[in-house]
Design brief:
6-stranded parallel sheet; 29% strand; 7-stranded mixed sheet; alpha/beta
């Protein structure tokens, strides 16, 4: 195998099976960091992209954007990392680094943002993700893993972690706040742990009773089943912040945060209730490199650790099938054999 190629789990077209394939890495340049991939988390974005559910996918596609690994090569401009460092990469791998958003620590909003997979580098090389043995990308979007965190634990912080940490921090979650989180999944379980660590009182809002014990262990002080009309009625006008749930449960001046991205447009948004309670309805996309660095420090300080289930990288197709069946508790992580 050439030093400029890698092997990864590629999908050749919609509805085609994953195949272990040799593909080209992006051209190596002065800002490049190359990793030997040790672990990669599995995200809903992976299956949406494999399926062209968010729009046409640029096939062949290798997904995976919760990447951790060991630095094996660096470009001449790279000073933050050295060969042998443990490093992580999230859903974004590039940006112009010159626009108003990039210069204000909002690189995730750059019009020239390059996704870690299903994107194109400025020279038109395809971007590929971490369901692979190697990864290569820009140093600006690589992050040192804290000494207290293993690669397998750190991996899911780089998408699910930052996707929930960034908006909670940005919108002022602090002691005294009441936060509602709908769904204890990959994103939801992170949201609970972050909000609890920020000092908030957290309520899980779930479609069934089966995750009640998990919610308590994660840090929730309350649990409501969404079909329990009496329970919901008792919690009207309760929450300062809600992640992806019911507007009617929010206090006046509350903040409704959208982080999960379905394949179809949102509907049923109650305009009158939003106006009457002066609610703020916001979206949030991953997080900036500065927010990523802050999140890692916060996770280390407060011992925030995701709940993961490990799979061998060689078993990635089976892991994706299990993921589609809703089996993660609460995040799958693929591990390359060392």
């Amino acid at each position: 195998m050439s030093q400029d190629t890698f092997h990864g789990w590629s999908v050749a077209a919609k509805d085609k099976p994953m195949q272990w394939t040799e593909l080209p890495l992006k051209a190596f340049d002065v800002d490049s960091v190359e990793l030997k991939v040790t672990h990669c988390g599995v995200c809903g974005s992976d299956t949406h992209t494999m399926d062209s559910a968010w729009g046409p996918t640029d096939y062949p596609c290798v997904t995976g954007h919760e990447i951790t690994g060991i630095v094996t090569r660096i470009g001449d401009n790279v000073r933050r990392f050295k060969v042998g460092d443990r490093v992580g990469v999230g859903a974004q791998s590039g940006a112009c680094l010159e626009c108003e958003y990039c210069k204000s620590n909002q690189e995730q909003l750059c019009a020239k943002k390059i996704n870690t997979y299903n994107g194109r580098w400025p020279n038109n090389d395809q971007s590929f993700g971490g369901f692979a043995d190697k990864w290569r990308g820009h140093q600006h979007f690589c992050f040192k893993i804290p000494d207290s965190m293993t690669n397998e634990i750190a991996a899911t912080c780089f998408c699910a972690g930052i996707t929930t940490y960034a908006p909670l921090k940005r919108h002022g979650v602090k002691p005294g706040c009441r936060v509602g989180v709908k769904g204890l999944g990959g994103l939801g379980h992170f949201a609970v742990m972050w909000a609890k660590a920020m000092g908030a009182e957290v309520t899980a809002l779930s479609t069934s009773d089966r995750k009640r014990d998990d919610a308590k262990d994660l840090g929730c002080s309350d649990y409501v089943v969404l079909t329990d009309k009496e329970g919901l009625a008792q919690r009207q006008r309760t929450f300062d912040h809600i992640i992806d749930s019911l507007f009617s449960l929010m206090k006046p001046n509350g903040i409704y945060i959208v982080v999960g991205v379905p394949e179809t447009p949102l509907n049923g948004i109650p305009a009158m209730l939003i106006a009457a309670r002066q609610l703020t309805f916001v979206g949030s996309l991953i997080g900036s490199p500065a927010a990523m660095e802050e999140m890692l420090v916060f996770a280390e300080k407060h011992n925030v650790r995701p709940w993961i289930n490990k799979w061998k990288m060689s078993d990635a197709p089976a892991a994706i099938m299990a993921f589609r069946e809703g089996k993660p508790r609460y995040r799958f992580v693929l591990e390359n054999e060392q």
